Amino acid sequence: MTNRPAPAEIGAFIALVAGAIAMGASPVFVRFAEIGPFASAFWRVALALPVLWLWWAWEKRSGRAGTFSKAVLLAGIFFAGDLMFWHLAVLGTTIANATLLACLAPVWVALFSGALIGEPVPKIVFGGLALCLLGAAMLVGESFAFEPERLAGDLAGFVTSIFFGLYFLVVRVARRKAGAGTVTFQSSLITAAILLTVALMAGGSMWPTEPMAIAALFALGLFSHAGGQGLLAVALGVLSASFSSLVIFIEALAAAIFGWAIFAELLSPLQIGGGALILFGIWVARPRPASPPVDVNAR
């Protein structure tokens, strides 16, 4: 008898892919926002809070909210660090360098999942991760280049991957005791407070003036954050942190497709091949159902 994934795992995987697509659209919205990078990062989180509050209120009313935990606090801090260093990377190096270095996040999740959250990583996941990393390198293509003057930006991209990797681990822990809406809402409150402080200290424009910019910020908050991070939290309640972290590769693939569709950015055969390899790597790393016990008395 062939084992099949449980309905909960199928639903969680669908949420994972949908969340990746939503997060992958964020660079498109940021381009139209026309305000400072830290300000757009703040609005991304702040504008999602009303929707996330409704989700949290529903979970609280239905008894699914759970309690605030240290893991939720850390999730808010780590995601703020992820967004801050991501924007520093984008400002300090090429998009290709920043993207490829940020894709190291699943490496940290796979390396530390067992030690930090008691979730050992199957060997097959490391195989899928290796394929995804190769696919990401192909997706970035010849745009990746090391130059000494961009070292600070490259370092920021590397730090981004660490923060995002830690974010996956603590959200996985937080979801053991709280609902997805509760974790996303409470951690977003912390993230928004940190990003507001950083944005005000950095100076620059905080308020968009053009209708297109305002619409882009709302899309960034509702689609990329409430939708993207919320669905990721849903998936992390069922799927392992190591497998879920592969979402960053789908996010990079989605961003490339959005760039092609909206900004007419060309996709070379090498990049298309890289995208296909990413999908294959995720298929290789997919969770395997446990084998049923063998009945020794069966004839």
Summarize the structure.
This protein is an all-alpha fold and 299 residues long. The protein has helices at 7-24, 26-33, 37-46, 49-61, 70-92, 95-102, 105-117, 123-140, 151-174, 180-202, 211-236, 241-244, 247-263, 269-284.
Give the tally of β-strands. Answer: 0
Rg from Cα: 19 Å
pLDDT average, as an integer? Answer: 87
Count every helix, treating DSSP H or I runs of 4 or more residues as helices.
Answer: 14
* End-to-end distance: 15 Å
Percentage of β-strand residues: under 5%
Helix percentage? over 70%
What ranges have pLDDT less than 50 throughout 5 or more consecutive residues?
291-299
Class per helix and strand makeup: mainly alpha
Largest sheet: none
What general form does the structure show? globular
Order of helices and strands: HHHHHHHHHHHHHH
Number of domains: 1
